[in-house]
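User: Hey, quick favor. My workstation is busy. Could you predict this chain's structure for me?
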Amino acid sequence: MKIAVKANIEDFDKIMNVDCEVIGNTSRRDYIENAIELGHCIISKNEDDIEGFLIYDINFFECSFITLIIVSPSKRRKGNASLLIDYMMSISPTTKVFSSTNRSNSSMQKVFDANGFIESGIVENLDEGDPEIIYFKSK
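Assistant: No problem, here it is.
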């Protein structure tokens, strides 16, 4: 059965395996470890397998901001991102939750739309020629 829970440090290596599978390196190692230690990392797991993870912070105008949603390529389109978002909404320390994705990332835009997020703005000049769309949802 697939569940979402807060990650603990024992999950770190499996989370890193998923992240490395997606981005091809371990450059976010310290960032992920810090998020776990702060209690800001949520995992989607099926039995002992971690299929995806979400990281958030509360530094975006004192609102929760989902900074990263990563799902193993072989586990995509199976409800993992939605499960992570639902759990995040249930535990969010703020009533307003924001996130973002590039205009070119239509798959993530569909995930946000399917989970009740609305577009809240655009930030230019982060990635050349690929604006960042900000999304918002209230608890």
